[in-house]
Specification:
119 residues; Arc Repressor Mutant, subunit A; 2 domains; 3-stranded antiparallel sheet; 70% helix; DNA-binding; transcription; HTH_ArsR_DNA-bd_dom
């Protein structure tokens, strides 16, 4: 499965977001995902399996629980692929930053001392 097929699913992205802060037990992941997406425990398990089999997550037993952790290598590969597209959004982000600064300057130049006291 291609990295973007894995990352294209909102449930799997949410699971990875939960794992960013560190290892999480499968039960805790399932609880959050079921509450947010309204899916069954077997469906959550299926998403965890896809993440594990695609290398985005690893799991290890801890007594009666399974702990999941995010794996960085596939994310780095996706990041490298996206780097080729950076010029497309950097130019637009630079233009946005320019417009925001221009608007800020315009607001400052049209507001008087009384306006600043009221904000």
């Amino acid at each position: 499965m291609h990295a973007f097929d894995v990352l294209g699913d909102p449930v799997r992205r949410r699971i990875l977001e939960l794992l960013v802060s560190g290892e999480q037990p499968a039960g805790a992941i399932s609880e959050v995902v079921r509450a947010e997406f309204g899916i069954s425990p077997p469906a959550v398990s299926q998403h965890l399996r896809v993440l594990r089999e695609s290398g985005f997550a690893s799991s290890r037993p801890d007594g009666t629980r399974r702990l999941y952790a995010v794996e960085a290598a596939p994310l780095r590969e996706a990041h490298r692929w996206l780097e080729g597209f950076r010029p497309f959004w950097e130019q637009r982000l630079d233009a946005l930053a320019t417009e925001l600064a221009r608007g800020k300057r315009a607001r400052r130049s049209t507001s008087g001392p009384d306006d600043e006291e009221n904000t």
